Amino acid sequence: MSHHCYRSTVLTTITALLLGMTAGSSRSAVEILEFDRDSFPQLTVDLRVTDPLGNPLCALEAGDLSVNENGVPVLDLQVDPLSGGNCGRRVVLILSAGALMAGQLDGARQLALDLLDTLGPQDQASLVVYAGCAAVEVEMTSNMQAVRDALNQLIAQGGAAMADAVYLGLTTACAQGATSAVYIGNGIDLQSQDCALPLNGSYDGTLDDDREQILTAIGTCDTRFFAVSTWPLNETWLRNLSHELGGEHYRIADVTPVEQTAMLGGATADCCLHRATFASPLADTDGTSRELSICWQADCATLTYVAPCDPPFCPPDAPLEFSLPELDTMAGHEVDIDLRIAHGEHSYITSYMVRVVTSVPILEVLSAQHDAATMAGEAGWGAPVFYQPHPGEIRLSGAGVEPLPAAGTLVRLRARVFDDAPLECVDLSFEEVVFNEGHPAPVQVDGQLCVTKRCAPGRVSYWSDPSRGVPNVLISQQQARVLRAVSADDGSYEVCLTHGENVQLSFERPFDQTPTISALDAAYVLQCVVGAEDPSLADIAVGCGEDIIRPMDIAADVSGDGTISAYDASLLLQFAVGAIDAFPAGGWKFFCENVELSEGDTIPDVVGVLTGDCTGSWTPEPPDVAGAAPMKSQHNRQEGR
Predict the structure, then answer these.
(1) Which helix (H) or strand (E) holds 175?
(2) Which residue stretches of 245-325 are H helix?
(3) Mean pLDDT, residues 196-225 taken together
(4) pLDDT number for residue 627
């Protein structure tokens, strides 16, 4: 039996799995950090356990925890330390020792000493005192005796700058990563005139401003702030600040040993982690949803997970999405349509049946493939079966022994867009999708096929023989976009136009310096002059709108002066013997101009004329040498709607 597994990562993923927690105090005692079922039926849970005061339990054993799966106890539990971390607590004591504390200093000192007695060998403390001026008397240290000595030497003297002392104490605590800062004092805020002020500006008794400056200075600091009043002054200010920083306000007479421990805070975030490893007691009934409960005394954390199983019987871990693409294509062209699956790690799909419809019937399906680029091809499935009962519907089915391995393309359709497809976007929609025998049910995402261009075929033929195509003619336009095409050996070319586009095409070809032009062409010109031209050539005409053009006249007018004379014959004879290598009239000319296209039309034949070839004997041979600059003739092309 093979199993498909996942590994949920730390808190971001586990949070989604937690159903709820119960705890014997205001803080959850069991915290699940990571869950792993990669080796199912073996399960692994990383966790942290703290006591009701927030202190980590650093030496957990299997007997300290009870683990149940759907109410069935786990009997083979193993618990190992995962990380020692820094379990020591770090506290900053902020003490008032101004002159007005004379009758209260002993009580404040004793509470501070009691707090130090609660700390252990891994813990550290620092002391901030204000007696006239606020100052750090003892830096963060594990030498508790040094802190005790400094406390015992305090005498009541000087001013009582409470807000400055709290500011200094909290910024010190945040900088040193302290778990808590504890203020003990009478709440009096009288600044001595000769002290440097930690807070901005001079003392003006405006505690709200001081509070905002304190909160801004410490930012997102994790230190909790506790305040203990020996006198009922500014208690509201102290209470509000302590609540904002995750602590509490007390009067000194009400502080109990439990509250003393709470004021010192818990351990740091990575302290005393454990890994619990055990076998699922329900391993023989895999493929089901499980509720896992881990308890320390009365405090529990609970999560749910789906046990892995063999395909095709399990649902995917995440919703399965089946989608059609959004594509741009051209009328008359072929297009690949990929039907894609996106899901979690487990699809368990071994068969499918799909029906796709188009809002406008514009497609002819040519093939359906399970090739190497598809999931089905990767899984070794055979060729899919497809059937198109009409152009607006496509039916597909496929199956294989191995389940689909991963997210990707399930099947690839090759289809041809009809030549007369409208230039618009057509909806591609799932009419029916069945995986296996109906499970899993996918989330269906429809697509769209936008026909953005239409390609019109055209042809360039030679004037003396319409069956003779003119190759290597460059068809271009230099308007809103650059369009370039070259005629093929048979003179054919294709121009692709977008909806509503007006295109003015130009045709050009290098001048052919070949034996095509000879003294015989000069003789034909002289015959034209006296009216004895060959009627089989002279009668050839090209209609250009309302005008009729005789290509032979264009070929014979090599001087370009609009008439045919003995001068043209003279130029032809000079060309024949190599005295000149070009004609004043230029080389190739193309007719006709202003051809208007309607939607779906074929471009009428464009006729090419080689200047000087009065006999029409040119054949489509590659030019030997590049000649004079080609003559360009402008032709309008417009796709109408």
Answers:
(1) helix 162-175
(2) 257-263
(3) 78
(4) 39
